[in-house]
Design goal:
heterodimer, A: 229 residues, alpha/beta, six-stranded mixed sheet, four-stranded antiparallel sheet, 6 helices, 10 strands, globular, B: 389 residues, alpha+beta, 2 domains, ten-stranded mixed sheet, two-stranded antiparallel sheet, 15% strand
Chain lengths: 229, 389
């Protein structure tokens, strides 16, 4: 269960104060595939960063799998992310000097696993996203869709409780975008992972359980959403 | 995937930049090693060319003042003296003024008494004694002018108003003796000077003591012998005499050392700038690693490991290169190339200096990499991610 309790986040830009999120409260049960949607500047990515433990709210509380994130200092939060969160970005953000399988293996450097086991798990994750045949290709040798698949494999290789994806189809053509959305849905179905995805892509709605809509930092309404009162 | 591989891959992400930076560190460490070897090289030269049982006696006022020739016979009678010879600086030049080199009028009969360690063959000394205008020449000077044994050469006097023609009868072997010097008969100079008022002085007297323990007593006796005379003398061991010349080079050595370390300082700045540039370019990747859960300390260590690995490679290359090149020069110095190499053949790098060079390189890597790595590792993850999008 992901719980967001009366969370506000504001940014200061010079003398201006921007309310990125205002008193947002919601719950996402385990195993749900949720889309955060809304116009630019609505606070989608801010909420995603808070759920992933990348940022801290100015007020309110974020609780993921029973863990209140505000109780963790920076180092503990990093360790928590490494164990519990898989991240997928719009521009894939693979390390260009590493091969596909090495990119997938990267988060496992933070575990106590031995090298052969790390490699074995990375290969399994790569196979799960349909890239078992291209383990030794560098990112620049892969298409956008393939790079995003590698990024997804990197997100799932640590077997996290929560996968967060920030515009995962934003940089892809229509065909690749649908393939990635299908892949995320398949991962959600097959492994029961909770997935929270920020997207502008209206096609995304067809693949998710719930849509949470935000506008100007406040929760507006949801389609099958479980926004708490 | 290992941490080591991650560091290595990042290090050579821009191969040309990595190679040039490594070579810059290597060159600086090479210079540092060569410069640190300099004092030891001078000590080696001194050790090789000077004796503890040879005493130099010169005018107390300085080397440019003459002593009466009669002093030579008087010091010969001091107990413990094994041999006496003398130098009179002729100051002759060969062909052109730039061809100035040390040439002395000496006593051909007592060369082996005073310089037995020079290893001049007996037949060469016999030839030297027999030929009135004969001369012995150091191997470096022989090679410098392309002279050969049996050749006649003329030196133009700059102190004495005479030009003298010599026949080269032998070479002072390389190794122990002075490779630049030319020795000729004092009597030959005296004869040439007869019509110009004669020559009854001597520039310096060389004494060889029978035993090292006699040296201090002999020097005291010599000084006492001519005290309160019109030409008081100062005596010192050959080692101290040559060492005083090297002593005057200490300031120069300090300058060279300072320049060497300034080179290292410049390389630190270059490496730090390269390191900072590399880390700035990789802020997005650092952000990704932080978002994946990599702690600040791990990122700091990985980034510092890159700069120290690069510096270590440069250090090993520089120290290894210095070791190899100076070793090769030293080996060549033991062969016939010694005259060509001159003092370079005396540079021998100790393992300690090689170790110091590598340690300096490591320090360069740490200093150059730490600040940019610290800044990179401290970057808040959300702020770093914003730079990404």
């Amino acid at each position: 269960m992901i719980e967001v309790r009366d969370v506000s986040r504001l940014y200061r830009r010079g003398v201006d104060v921007v309310h990125a999120l205002e008193h947002v409260t919601l719950r996402i049960p385990d195993g749900r595939f949720v889309a955060l949607m809304g116009p630019s500047g609505s606070g989608k990515s801010t909420l995603l960063n808070l759920l992933a433990g990348l940022d801290r709210p100015d007020s309110g509380e974020v609780i993921v799998a029973g863990q209140p994130l505000s109780g963790l200092d920076d180092e503990a939060l990093a360790a928590w992310r490494a164990r519990h969160v898989g991240l997928i970005f719009q521009f894939y953000n693979l390390i260009p000097v590493l091969t596909a399988v090495e990119n997938v293996e990267l988060p496992l450097l933070l575990t106590a696993l031995r090298r052969p086991e790390r490699r074995r798990r990375a290969e399994i994750a790569l196979a799960a996203v349909g890239l078992a045949h291209r383990p030794h290709h560098r990112p620049q040798q892969l298409s956008g869709g393939e790079q995003q698949r590698v990024a997804i494999a990197r997100a799932i290789v640590t077997d996290p409780d929560l996968i967060v994806a920030d515009e995962p189809t934003g940089d892809l053509d229509a065909k690749s975008a649908v393939e990635i959305l299908e892949l995320l849905r398949e991962l959600n179905r097959a492994f029961g992972k909770s997935i929270v995805m920020v997207t502008h892509d209206p096609r995304g709605e067809r693949f998710v359980h719930d849509v949470i809509r935000l506008d100007k930092g406040v929760l507006v309404n949801g389609t099958r959403a479980t926004a708490a009162p | 995937m290992t941490w080591r591989r991650l560091v290595w891959r990042n290090l050579f992400r821009h191969p040309l930049r990595a190679i040039f930076t490594t070579l810059a560190v290597a060159l600086a460490i090479f210079l540092v090693c060569a410069v640190l070897t300099l004092p030891a090289a001078l000590a080696t030269i001194l050790e090789r060319s000077a004796s503890n049982v040879r005493i130099s006696v010169h005018h107390k006022a300085g080397l440019t003042y003459w002593l009466p020739f009669a002093y030579v016979a008087r010091v010969r009678n001091i107990p413990g003296v094994a041999g006496v010879n003398h130098f009179s600086w002729f100051g002759g030049i060969y062909d052109e003024p730039k061809n100035l080199f040390p040439n002395f009028a000496i006593d051909p009969d007592t060369v082996d008494d005073v310089w037995p360690d020079y290893g001049i063959p007996a037949e060469t000394l016999a030839r030297f004694r027999a030929v009135r205008n004969g001369c012995l020449v150091g191997n470096a000077t022989m090679e410098r002018f392309g002279w050969r044994i049996g050749q006649e050469i003329t030196l133009r006097g700059t102190i004495f108003p005479v030009n003298l023609t010599f026949r080269i009868v032998g070479v002072i072997p390389p190794g122990v003796g002075n490779p630049y010097v030319l020795w000729f008969h004092r009597k030959y100079l005296e004869e040439a000077m007869e019509e110009r008022g004669g020559f009854g002085n001597v520039g310096m007297i060389w004494i060889r003591a029978e035993r090292p323990e006699d040296v201090d007593r002999i020097m005291a006796s010599v000084d006492a012998l001519f005290r309160n005379s019109e030409a008081e003398v100062a005596s010192e061991t050959e080692k101290a005499f040559i060492g005083s010349f090297f002593g005057s080079m200490q300031a120069m050595i300090r300058v060279i050392l300072a320049v060497g370390f300034l080179c290292v300082g410049a390389v630190v700045l270059i490496a730090a700038n390269t390191s900072a540039m590399g880390i700035r370019e990789r802020v997005p990747e650092i952000a990704i690693m932080k978002s994946l859960g990599f702690p600040r300390r791990a990122i700091l260590l990985a980034l510092v490991a890159e700069s120290t690995t690069q510096a270590l490679l440069g250090g090993l290359l520089g120290a290894g290169g210095a070791w190899g090149i100076l070793g090769a020069l030293a080996a060549a110095g033991k062969t016939g190339a010694s005259a060509f190499l001159g003092p370079l053949g005396s540079f021998r790098m100790s393992p300690e200096i090689a170790g110091q060079g590598v340690l300096i390189a490591l320090a360069v890597g740490l200093v150059a990499g730490f600040v940019p790595a610290w800044n990179g590792a401290r970057l808040p993850v959300v702020e770093a991610l914003r730079k990404l999008f």
